[in-house]
Known about the structure:
single chain, 66% helix, rod-shaped
Amino acid sequence: MRSIPLYPNSPSPSPAQIRTEIGISNYPVGANWFLTLPFLITGLPLAVTLTIAIASKLHHHIHTTAIARQRAYLERIWQINSHRL
Protein backbone atom coordinates (compact mmCIF):
# COMPACT_ATOMS: atom_id res chain seq x y z
CA MET A 1 0.00 0.00 0.00
CA ARG A 2 1.48 3.34 -1.06
CA SER A 3 1.25 6.38 1.13
CA ILE A 4 -0.18 9.51 -0.42
CA PRO A 5 1.91 12.62 0.38
CA LEU A 6 0.03 15.44 2.05
CA TYR A 7 1.91 18.05 0.04
CA PRO A 8 2.70 16.57 -3.38
CA ASN A 9 4.92 19.45 -4.54
CA SER A 10 7.06 19.72 -1.40
CA PRO A 11 10.46 17.97 -1.37
CA SER A 12 10.73 14.93 0.86
CA PRO A 13 12.63 15.56 4.10
CA SER A 14 16.12 14.23 4.57
CA PRO A 15 16.81 11.50 7.16
CA ALA A 16 18.52 14.11 9.36
CA GLN A 17 15.42 16.31 9.23
CA ILE A 18 13.23 13.36 10.14
CA ARG A 19 15.49 12.47 13.09
CA THR A 20 15.43 16.07 14.28
CA GLU A 21 11.66 16.23 13.89
CA ILE A 22 11.02 13.15 16.02
CA GLY A 23 13.72 14.06 18.54
CA ILE A 24 16.46 11.55 17.78
CA SER A 25 20.02 12.73 18.17
CA ASN A 26 22.53 12.43 15.34
CA TYR A 27 24.96 10.65 17.69
CA PRO A 28 24.72 6.88 17.25
CA VAL A 29 25.09 6.15 20.97
CA GLY A 30 23.27 9.24 22.14
CA ALA A 31 24.56 12.57 23.36
CA ASN A 32 24.71 11.43 26.99
CA TRP A 33 27.23 8.61 26.57
CA PHE A 34 29.22 9.98 29.51
CA LEU A 35 26.37 8.94 31.80
CA THR A 36 27.65 5.36 31.44
CA LEU A 37 31.03 6.29 32.96
CA PRO A 38 29.92 5.89 36.61
CA PHE A 39 28.66 2.41 35.77
CA LEU A 40 31.97 1.55 34.12
CA ILE A 41 33.99 3.01 36.98
CA THR A 42 32.08 1.02 39.60
CA GLY A 43 31.07 -1.97 37.51
CA LEU A 44 34.39 -3.04 36.07
CA PRO A 45 36.27 -3.25 39.40
CA LEU A 46 33.27 -5.04 40.90
CA ALA A 47 33.26 -7.58 38.07
CA VAL A 48 37.02 -8.13 38.44
CA THR A 49 36.68 -8.53 42.22
CA LEU A 50 33.85 -11.03 41.88
CA THR A 51 35.76 -12.99 39.26
CA ILE A 52 38.84 -13.20 41.50
CA ALA A 53 36.72 -14.21 44.50
CA ILE A 54 34.93 -16.96 42.57
CA ALA A 55 38.20 -18.24 41.10
CA SER A 56 39.77 -18.27 44.57
CA LYS A 57 36.85 -20.24 46.05
CA LEU A 58 36.94 -22.69 43.16
CA HIS A 59 40.70 -23.15 43.52
CA HIS A 60 40.32 -23.73 47.27
CA HIS A 61 37.53 -26.26 46.69
CA ILE A 62 39.51 -28.18 44.08
CA HIS A 63 42.61 -28.16 46.27
CA THR A 64 40.85 -29.36 49.44
CA THR A 65 38.97 -32.03 47.46
CA ALA A 66 42.25 -33.32 46.02
CA ILE A 67 43.84 -33.39 49.49
CA ALA A 68 40.83 -35.27 50.92
CA ARG A 69 40.98 -37.84 48.12
CA GLN A 70 44.71 -38.29 48.61
CA ARG A 71 44.26 -38.68 52.37
CA ALA A 72 41.48 -41.26 51.92
CA TYR A 73 43.63 -43.16 49.43
CA LEU A 74 46.63 -43.18 51.77
CA GLU A 75 44.48 -44.25 54.74
CA ARG A 76 43.06 -47.13 52.71
CA ILE A 77 46.55 -48.26 51.75
CA TRP A 78 47.62 -47.98 55.39
CA GLN A 79 44.63 -50.11 56.48
CA ILE A 80 45.41 -52.77 53.87
CA ASN A 81 49.09 -52.84 54.83
CA SER A 82 48.37 -52.93 58.57
CA HIS A 83 46.15 -56.03 58.10
CA ARG A 84 48.99 -57.82 56.37
CA LEU A 85 51.31 -57.53 59.36
